[in-house]
Amino acid sequence: MVVYLEKISIFLSQLLFGIAGITLIGMVVLTCTNVLLRCVWVPIKGVYEFMGFFGAIVTAFALGYTQMKRGHVGIDIVVKQFSARIQRILDGVNYLICAVFFVLAGWQIAVWGTTIWRTGEVTETLRIIFYPFIYGVALGCLILSLVFLVDLLKVLLGEKGAS
Hints:
Layout: H1 2-39, H2 47-68, H3 84-119, H4 131-157
Helix pairs in contact: 1-2, 1-4, 2-4, 3-4
């Protein structure tokens, strides 16, 4: 079962990471275009709004992949002094806490997105709906929690590469 969950988490994390990369390229193109157009006094309307939404998507969609690659900042000066067994226990506790936290965060962000959807709130400048971006952030949190769950299961089953 862990193998299937791991394959699903890898696929979803890589998919979201690819979307984050494409979105980041779009941000660069939009920013450069806006800067060039400002030289002729015709900036693009709503760039600030798009940068905020796209930045949220880039960040949220890269979370799971970054965890899989162990790219998040970790300070383990004290933990490295413990035995391998204690380190695995601490890793397991950490993965459990993080998985629960990001499930709760994803859930609450989705609840907020639903509230925004129901109230019909739109952006100030372009008047576009933005609840899909909120749901995107919730999705990123939930995929990260799936990656933490897989890491936790690996620790519990004693698999190598779990910490």
